[in-house]
Amino acid sequence: MIWKRNTARVLPVDPEGRALLLRGWDPLRPRDRYWFTVGGATERGESLLAAAVRETREEVGITVDEASLGSQIESSTIEWTLLGIRVVQDLAYYAVPVRDVKVNLAGMGWIERATVNRHAWLTPEELEADPIRCSDPRLPDMLRLAVAAVRSAQVPGITVPGRQLA
To answer: Please, what are the averages of pLDDT over each run of 10 residues along the chain (166 residues)?
Structure first.
């Protein structure tokens, strides 16, 4: 069985230039842990931006709007296995600046609750140094793109490494 998904992936970036990531695992392979982004599949008739907004609220309790997500920063396709099912997933990445947010995982669906065991705010360098693999091998580069997108948006009050945005 193949589960094909078109997904919106969101990288919330905090004032220190760190992105919020989730750490998951497959109960059928408990030692196979991995970092991945907030986000999920589009529902019937839903745009990628609408899915990004919904998934960010549901998965981590952060409310954003479509305008704050801006343009897609990158795309990728990954293939992986979860609970014995082969997943082919198209990924559309978005970055969003956040400040003073509290992460709340209570809105996750049953699959997420069963397979997500941690969240963390990480820089690309911290992610690269972590022995846990990334769901998308390009994830450290996606973090760099997200931080650069937030920098270029010139969001008032957001400081990122090397620059204070006025």
So the answer is: 92 96 92 95 96 97 92 91 88 95 94 93 97 94 95 57 40
Residue 67 makes CB contacts below 8 A (sequence gap 6+) with none
Is 162 a domain residue?
Answer: no
160 falls within a domain: no
Closest CA to 48 of 88, 78, 93, 8: 8
The amino acid sitting at 148 is A
Query: β-pairing, 159-160 with 163-164?
Result: antiparallel
The model's pTM: 0.88
Tokens describing residue 46: 């839903």
Residues forming a β-bridge with 91 = 7, 76
Identify the helix (H) or strand (E) that includes residue 21.
strand 19-26
CATH number at residue 99: 3.90.79.10
Chain position carrying tokens 């998934």: 55
In tens, the pLDDT along 20-63 reads 999 999 888 889 999 999 999 999 999 999 999 999 999 999 99
Strand 2-13 and strand 85-97: the pairing is: parallel
Q: Which residues form the domain of 89?
A: 2-155
Tokens 């409310």 -> residue? 63
